Write a sequence for this structure.
C-alpha cells in the first residue's frame, strides 16, 4: 500500500514552504487573532488539499516549476479549509483536534468564530488578487457549499428518517 507521505514526496519541499508562508500570510494586526491563527497553522495537519493543488499544478504545467500563483492558490485552499475547521469545532463544541486544543477551547467561541471569519476574509482577499475570475467563482462556490452542508447537518442531527441520498448530498457539501 502506498502511503500519503510517499504520494506527496514530489511536493514535500513545497509543502514545507507553504507552512512557513501561511504564518506570514496571517498578517493580523490584533494579537489575539494572530495568536489564534498562528496556533491553527502551527498545529500541522496532513495538508492534503494544498498538496493536491501543488501536485495538479506540477502535472499540468510544461516545465514542472510551481509558480508563485500556484503556491498562493495552495495557501488559500489551506486557509479556507482551516477556517472551516475552526467553525466546525465551535459548532461541535470540540475541545481537541488531532490531540491539540481547539481555538475555541483556548480562547472562547467568539474569538474562534472571528478567527475563522478572519481566515475566510484573508483567503478571499488573496484569492481576489490572483485576478482569475474562474478560480474566484469556484472557491466561492466551495465555501457556499460547505456552509450549506453544515446547515443540512445541523438540521438533520438525530434524524433517523434521513435517506441515503440526503445523507450523501449533505456529506458532499
Amino acid at each position: 500500500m502506498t502511503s500519503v507521505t510517499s504520494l506527496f514526496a514530489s511536493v514535500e519541499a513545497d509543502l514545507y514552504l507553504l507552512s512557513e508562508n501561511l504564518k506570514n500570510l496571517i498578517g493580523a494586526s490584533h494579537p489575539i487573532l494572530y495568536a489564534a491563527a498562528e496556533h491553527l497553522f502551527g498545529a500541522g495537519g496532513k495538508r492534503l488539499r494544498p498538496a493536491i493543488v501543488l501536485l495538479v499544478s506540477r502535472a499540468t504545467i510544461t516545465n514542472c516549476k510551481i509558480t508563485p500563483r500556484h503556491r498562493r492558490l495552495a495557501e488559500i485552499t489551506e486557509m479556507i479549509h482551516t477556517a472551516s475547521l475552526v467553525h466546525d469545532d465551535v459548532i461541535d463544541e470540540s475541545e481537541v483536534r488531532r490531540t491539540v486544543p481547539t481555538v475555541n477551547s483556548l480562547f472562547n467561541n467568539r474569538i474562534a468564530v472571528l478567527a475563522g471569519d478572519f481566515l475566510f476574509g484573508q483567503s478571499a482577499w488573496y484569492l481576489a488578487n490572483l485576478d482569475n475570475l474562474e478560480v474566484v467563482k469556484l472557491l466561492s462556490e466551495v465555501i457556499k457549499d460547505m456552509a450549506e452542508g453544515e446547515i443540512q447537518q445541523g438540521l438533520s442531527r438525530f434524524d433517523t428518517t434521513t435517506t441515503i441520498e440526503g445523507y450523501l448530498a449533505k456529506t458532499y457539501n
Observations:
- DSSP finds nine helices and two strands in the chain.
- The CA atoms of residues 104 and 112 lie 5 Å apart.
- The chain has two domains: 4-131, 132-173.
